[in-house]
Amino acid sequence: MKALINSVSPLIWSIFLFTSVIWVVFPQVDLEISKLFYFQGRGFIFSNTFLESILYNSVKYVLVVVNVSAVILWLYNRFSGRNILDFNGKKLLFALLLLSIGSGLIVNSVLKENWGRPRPAQCVEFGGKMTFTPAFIPSSQDGYSFSCGHASAAFALIAYAMLARRRKRFWMTLVLVYGSLVGLARIAAGGHFFSDVVVSFFIMLITAKILYYYMDISKNPNKPQR
């Protein structure tokens, strides 16, 4: 357990804990942020717009392109004896596990399917019929707001940013901007609360750090692993 905790920096744990307490103690923060994108009689301003649709649907295509490219690169390195980008089977597994465990298992299967938190557009405060519940508080209303699946999938690209040999800060910034835009689109469309997006980000970041540590990704031999 100690090693599990130490695999993630104290700063990340502290920020995650602090924000989590905010969502529970001051749940109105979520409502106030969602109100910025809601107009009485018009609904959420970003809902069903072209830009929201682009960001919403982009996630699956970006993931397919990136992950298929990663598989092709691994196959090429494996069978050609080359070592392009120092990309090997362990690094490919790291990226796929982050998507599967962080987004697929934790966010979508464990949280979204069981937490029951209504989406903003479903809440009475925004013209819906369900009762608002804070993040981390289970509800029996069959909602799927907590936490944000699309944002978690977008943030799964953190794995590739962590594996970058050069300009790692640039690639990490690019992933964070993309994931944030996807999350913002979901908030502005009434699909998720701000806390849903933030929690998904931390789940993906913490999962990435733990996998990176336990898989010992930093120890990368000069030749591709098979």
Describe the structure.
This protein is an all-alpha fold. It has one domain: Vanadium-containing Chloroperoxidase, domain 1. The chain has 9 helices and 2 strands. It has helices at 2-6, 10-25, 28-35, 50-80, 89-115, 149-155, 158-163, 168-188, 194-214, and strands at 38-39, 43-44. Strands 1-2 form a two-stranded antiparallel ribbon. A hairpin with a 3-residue loop joins β1 (38-39) and β2. α5 packs antiparallel against α9. The longest helix has 31 residues, at 50-80.
Order the strands across the largest sheet as they lie in space: 1-2
CATH topology: Vanadium-containing Chloroperoxidase, domain 1
Sequence stretches where pLDDT stays below 50 over 5 or more residues = 221-226
Given the C-alpha coordinates, what overall shape results?
globular
List keywords for this structure.
226 residues, mainly alpha, globular
Topology (elements, then pairings):
Elements lengths: L1 H5 L3 H16 L2 H8 L2 E2 L3 E2 L5 H31 L8 H27 L33 H7 L2 H6 L4 H21 L5 H21 L12
Antiparallel strand pairs: 1-2
Helix pairs in contact: 2-9, 4-5, 4-8, 5-6, 5-9, 6-8, 6-9
